[in-house]
């Protein structure tokens, strides 16, 4: 049997296996049940297969399992019922062994896991969310993180991850903003390329590589009103230029799996959009992997989009459009065979999809080395080096938005420091969505980090939660005000939460301790399916800050949240503001590192922060035809894209473009001098923007085309150079081709999208 011969070419192995398979076995490869429902944890810690899973294997096989090791309130898997790193690897091995033994042809299962900011399994390292990862502006460090995530995931048997998220955010009221890199397609594309390289490595069949899945294809972050899965109103030209750019670049980098988005674009659901999945993805871009739906998306075709009048019609539409696997639904399992029987599909359509999945299983080495090493999993997952990397990444991702009068860094000889707010000691609130349950002590909160920085600081650090994220209770105000009155400065940890109900119950607003009750309580105001109409602080948080500010103490606000917060009062009255997003399990250490000056902040915004939600959209690459202002306010962001402060000061000078006249296929060298004019070593993100001054299509005022993060000693100057050529100057024309038009361009280099030096560049007519 050629398919069992690992020396044979993959294409030959796929065809040999495919011709041996029955219709039901082929259809089984397209099916992906919920993995956590396939096993049962026994009292002795071992696992057994559920009867439902056994029946499914016997009836034709299971191609893939989703989230076998996923643990969270949605799955119902807890610390008590879930699996340790070693147990997880053993369970995956047991499932794999059963499936291969009991299926007629011994085809291995592809285990797909959630890993957007760390493997969503008990014990795995929890890194900052993607919005924070983008704020590092450090693609190389992100790739290093992806290598760790791939190692931790594969060591337990996970072979595919449903990340990175490459959606471009147009409206940050969208609850999944935290899962994205931000609003700029070029930056997202850059990070997406590094994700593919980091996750997939040099070869897929190694112990530290997993299949990267680009999602959500496409325009998922551009929905109507920022509502999850809502319609998208966008022309094809803009779609190609903005939302598809990150996906194209990641495909060019070698991505081999794509997940479709829930939304429709101009009335066509992405799940059945043949133009996207066939014409663009495969024919134009040369994509050679497989396409998977999002969870339950096929069901939306009959109940939501209503483009199909039956299950048979829905699966036929999807398979013919280019879908190869259904994530955790039942439509393919129930209706493919009957759709073929009734002539809606040909068996060759099924063969095409099954072959794509089998090919990736061979490339991942699953046929030849299907099992994980439980001992390796126990040694690898969550080890100290990975936690230290999480701390370093969190430190680079935090953005300092304000530092009036050098309020920060704080001195470690400070007398007493009050740490106040609902996010000061709420471990789950700083982790973001798609996070597993955490054992006590695994998460370093802001309070923990500050106490550790002050060598324990039990007597010098005063703590009060004050209030919750949501709700109107002010019963904690009195204690919070008493702590603040006694302190020399106040750190307010406020913002939002993407924490699902992990059974924490209510909170004692005097001590901050969890009080578990029979009534669930969740402060979740961000995350998947949690979209908002406004961007202000929820509950009575602003009122708490206002009351404490009246005491006249230095006030440092630390935002922990998953989308921009628009609170002009805090912008005006706080002495310092840090935007930490959801900084992960080492977030408390990272925040303390910046508060006390051990780390010089170098994070920069990847999403514009408005003054008011009524300004939306405020993404920086606005068209010149955007209008002037509203009656009540202008169109300018409170904090523009690319913005962020440092304890150091940087000066830009001597911007040069050489030569200043090039052809459409020529190249210019752009250089700018950056000087650290302060007495402290620091890192700066040098950003290059380009403006096309006149074109046949209305263009954005400016677009990011390159960036580089550099470190400078006090007094040092570094000349930073960029290459500007066709790729930086082109745009998508009316006929959807990428062109460079002759004419005048402005080259801009500076610290953010609203502050820069300029120099001209002319692209001459050919001939």
TrEMBL record:
Fibronectin type III-like domain: residues covered: 684-753
Keywords, sorted A to Z: Hydrolase
SUPFAM superfamilies registered for this protein in UniProt: (Trans)glycosidases, Beta-D-glucan exohydrolase, C-terminal domain
UniProt-listed Pfam families: Fn3-like, Glyco_hydro_3, Glyco_hydro_3_C
Domain of life where this protein originates: Bacteria
Signal peptide feature range: none
Xref: InterPro entries: Cellulose_Degrad_GH3 (IPR051915), Fn3-like (IPR026891), GH (IPR017853), Glyco_hydro_3_C (IPR002772), Glyco_hydro_3_C_sf (IPR036881), Glyco_hydro_3_N (IPR001764), Glyco_hydro_3_N_sf (IPR036962), Ig-like_fold (IPR013783)
Keyword set includes Cell inner membrane: no
Protein name: Beta-glucosidase
